[in-house]
User: Fold these one by one.
Assistant:
Number 1:
Amino acid sequence: MPPRSVPTARQVRLGTELRRMREGAGLSIQEAADRLGINRTHITNLELARFGVSEERVRALAAIYACPDSAYVEALVAMTRERKGGWWEEYRGHIATGGLDLAELEYYATSLRVLEIMHMPGLLQTEEYARAVLGSTVPQWSATDLRRRLSHRMKRRDILDRDDPPPCTFIIHEAALRMRFGTGLVLRAQLDSLLESSERKNVTVRVLTFEAGGFHVPGLSVTYALGAVPQLDTAQLDAAHGPVFLDAQSQLVNHRGVLDRTTEAALSVEESRDFIRDIAQQT
């Protein structure tokens, strides 16, 4: 397989999991290469996602590493079959790589848990609201760049309309419901759209009110994407320099804990709908 110029976050994750599997077996790179009968550089390149890896190679490595988790191995094998890039590839070179990796993460997630503090979740934003959010960034983008990012954000929403849409739970802070991006009419339309989205069978919307009190969140947004097996879960945080992707087990445990605590403190589904309606009427 030819070398990759810029591997995607998912390709990097596959390489990371191969490294974790090797380290779990207590083998060095040289020992793994010797057992497989290849150069150690090849093992390094696979683990750094510089080259693609075949289904047969993953199975061979899993056998050498004596990995006992067949579901985990099969999930890694399935990742090797993702040869063709998704719709987000048409934006490569036009928007930041982090945005492409986020779209890829959402596309392959078996379920999503999202916590938003300052604005509506990207997957639930209306076009006019998204335009206002994207237009508020510093530094501001050109009209062409803004159109590309807006188109990309709107395209991300398509996962909710798939034949097999992933279950999505959105915990939205009251601050995000009241924060005005654009005009009052834009916000009112966004709140109405949010209520409509909350009626989807695969969408759960819960509101975290100011009365719930303070809580620790490492950023303004957390997206927790469940993988085919728990080892392949990913937490994504927003940062000023772009999305941050975390997959160490300790990090995943921490972010699951944050989401669990905020979910417990949030209003019920029906209470959340009533709360959103009240804010919409005030807008």
Number 2:
Amino acid sequence: MDHFHKLDGRCNCGNIRFRYYSPASLADIVLRACKCRACTKHGGRWLSHHHGILVAEVFDEELIRLVQFCNSESDFYACHACHVAPFVLCRSETDPRAVLNANTLDDFCAIDCNTHYHDYSSEPTARRNARRAVEWINNVTLTFPSIHETTEEPWALTHV
């Protein structure tokens, strides 16, 4: 992973932590911000790269709330303790795909980045899936150290 840039992030209380290996340098990162009502209200600025790698840990699974907006095809992994959602996993694909909330990165100021604004709320499902296949992170690992196991389907938590 010599050509990857390592970025660490977490929810506010640290219950959800992640490491993102980006093939793009910090100077080349372009953020996306959805202009739908839900994304606008929580101020998410999203980043991903198809060839990026996301390794995430949830320390207390009981504090996780899977929140869905708009099309209900993706789960926002929100920490119930601090109400921050560091990433979103897409459930419409066979393999999980993820996008990161740039505001949850450590030592990174999302405000200084180039941001492209879109409204994905009325995007047809086929187009949305095609876009996510080429833009979202396709190498995702989600672990739950407190129960000492790795889930094979991290996007399929049952309690909300």
